[in-house]
């Protein structure tokens, strides 16, 4: 990513909140680099939420970087995308991309944040992370995502009351859209499906196969993925009816049963 100009002519637009996004914001604060933060969530992290700031900055000669924002409107030539999801899963994490662009070294904590965002707990284990380091990162990530004490209790309740196993596939019908406390409590798992009446997420081995099965949904922008071959895949919140979601859940059970 090579753009002429000084750092004071760059503007970063921040995407949905998680630990990586908050860490990027901290770096930008420390380096006194301009950014706009509308405190978005994953489900509303869109370029259109920054259209006024984007237009104003480009008119003033800024180069603008959108971090993990869905391009739901046409973007001008002065806009640059920083992401590592969907068709960009081969790229480094957004934090790594920002640090590389700013020519900054990454400390241990930042390396763990990037590994967690790119490949979850297995990514941190590749860095020989201790149990304590993993616990700190995962707890901070859940907090950054807005997970509350009530969400943590709901996760425990869903695991106890609404879980089943089909072959190697763990399935949890969640009580809320906060899936991370469920994932963290069940790790390690081979493959995990968590869903509500409004969305589902599949994690672990065979994620690429699940994405390929729902290729039409992926191409229509209703499905997203990340984390590589054994990462995760899911549908956008509210993209389908509860009946359709249940149908998709049943298809996933069939796909994973003896085929992964």
Automatic annotation (TrEMBL):
Source species, domain of life: Bacteria
Record protein name field: Uncharacterized protein
Organism of this sequence: Parabacteroides acidifaciens
Higher taxonomy: Bacteria, Pseudomonadati, Bacteroidota, Bacteroidia, Bacteroidales
């Amino acid at each position: 990513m090579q753009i002429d100009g000084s750092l004071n002519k760059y503007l970063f637009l921040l995407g949905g909140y998680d630990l990586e996004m908050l860490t990027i914001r901290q770096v930008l604060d420390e380096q006194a680099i301009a950014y706009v933060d509308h405190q978005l969530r994953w489900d509303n992290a869109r370029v259109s939420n920054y259209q006024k700031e984007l237009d104003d900055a480009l008119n003033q000669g800024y180069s603008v970087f959108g971090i993990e924002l869905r391009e739901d409107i046409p973007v001008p030539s002065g806009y640059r995308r920083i992401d590592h999801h969907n068709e960009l899963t081969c790229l480094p994490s957004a934090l790594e991309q920002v640090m590389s662009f700013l020519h900054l070294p990454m400390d241990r904590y930042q390396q763990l944040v990037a590994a967690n965002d790119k490949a979850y707990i297995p990514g941190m284990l590749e860095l020989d992370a201790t149990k304590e380091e993993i616990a700190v990162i995962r707890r901070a990530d859940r907090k950054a995502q807005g997970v509350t004490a009530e969400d943590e209790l709901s996760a425990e309740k869903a695991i106890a009351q609404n879980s089943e196993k089909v072959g190697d596939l763990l399935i949890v019908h969640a009580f809320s859209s906060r899936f991370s406390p469920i994932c963290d409590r069940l790790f390690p798992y081979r493959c995990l499906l968590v869903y509500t009446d409004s969305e589902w997420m599949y994690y672990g081995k065979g994620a690429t196969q699940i994405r390929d099965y729902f290729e039409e949904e992926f191409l229509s922008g209703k499905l997203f993925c990340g984390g590589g071959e054994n990462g995760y895949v899911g549908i956008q919140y509210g993209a389908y009816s509860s009946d359709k979601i249940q149908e998709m859940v049943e298809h996933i059970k069939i796909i994973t049963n003896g085929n992964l």
